[in-house]
Amino acid sequence: MRQHVNPLSRFHQLPRPLPPPADCFAQPDLPLHLDIGSARGRFLLELAALEPEINHLGVEIRRPLVEAAEAERQELGLTNLRFLFCNANVSLEGWMGQLPRGLLRRVSIQFPDPWFKTKHHKRRVLQPSLLRAIALALEEGGWLFLQSDVAAVIEPMVALCEASGCFRRPPGDALPWRADNPLPVPTERERYALTHGLPVLRVLYQRNGTAVPSPEALEAALRATDNPADTARG
Questions:
Q1: How far apart are CA 111 and CA 226, in angstroms?
Q2: What are the pLDDT digits (tens) for 71-84?
Q3: Pick the catalytic residue: 35, 113, 149, 173?
Q4: Catalytic: 29?
Q5: Is 182 helix (H, G, I), strand (E, B) or coil?
Q6: CA-only gyration radius of the chain, Å
Q7: Where are the beta strands (DSSP E) in the chain?
Q8: Residue 152 — left, alpha, or beta (φ > 0 → left; ψ -120 to 50 → alpha)?
Q9: Over the stretch 144-195, which tens digit does the pLDDT of each residue have?
Q10: CB distance 147 to 181 below 8 Å
């Protein structure tokens, strides 16, 4: 069962300085995989053991889950993994902006909390400012992997990525959804969905060479996807 947290609460709107890679990993120069919304961390705990040549960072807004995941990481002695507590839309933008160029290779957002009501859309994890920060930090060819078992959750994320113009789907990927997971480990929610016959909707993007649009241009492009008639009249 998902445990919702209101990211717009005063507590979760406080910026939290995040430590640089040099303070997180034994080998901070390794390529970095950022998992946004890492929950209890079991996905990354398994993945980091399989991929010692990659550093993995999980960020999560629910502090008790971060504390439990970080305690298990320390018990396992995984020095290429770290879990941090923060609101991704408040604390990640500045942190990614300070990363050495080319370090961030992969970003995943998997099964985020579903905020269905229009008035709650600002609680969704992938906001325009966060997408811009991801696009600025990723080198051309870097991954952005999205998946959900709820169409109403992933479709706005896809619309935002498409509106930005900063990402392409790999050649041969099925439309509208990718058939398989490009990562070697499924999340707990993915396992649950597949076991219970729920749809798993996946999109893999790669950063292209297009310049990142300004916040105003991205918001305008996103509005145009919501109101295509406005674009036609313009």
A1: 23
A2: 999 999 999 999 99
A3: 113
A4: no
A5: coil
A6: 17
A7: 32-36, 55-60, 81-85, 104-110, 143-148, 167-168, 201-207
A8: alpha
A9: 999 999 998 999 999 999 999 999 999 999 889 999 999 999 999 999 999 9
A10: yes
Distance between CA atoms of residues 148 and 33, nearest Å: 19
In the chain, the domains with their CATH numbers are 20-233 (3.40.50.150)
- Asked whether the bond before 171 is cis by omega within 30 degrees of 0, the reply is no
Q: How many angstroms separate the Cα of 227 from the Cα of each of 23, 76, 128, 161?
A: 45, 50, 17, 17
* Spatial contact of 207 and 141, defined as CB atoms under 8 Å apart: yes
Mean pLDDT (the chain) is 88
The answer on pLDDT for 100 being more than 60 is yes
Q: How far apart are CA 180 and CA 100, in angstroms?
A: 31
225: closest CA among 176, 136, 153, 165? 165
218: enclosing H helix or E strand: helix 215-226
CA distance linking residue 189 with residue 166, whole number of Å:
28
Asked whether 55 and 34 are in contact (CB, 8 A), the reply is no
Dihedral pair phi/psi, residue 146, rounded to 5°: -120, 140
Token readout for 167 is 């990402």
Q: What is the DSSP letter of 165?
A: T
Count of helices and strands (H, E) across the chain: 8, 7
Taking a C-beta distance cutoff of 8 angstroms, is the pair 162, 156 a contact?
A: no
Measured between alpha carbons, how far is 25 from 80 in angstroms, rounded to an integer? 5
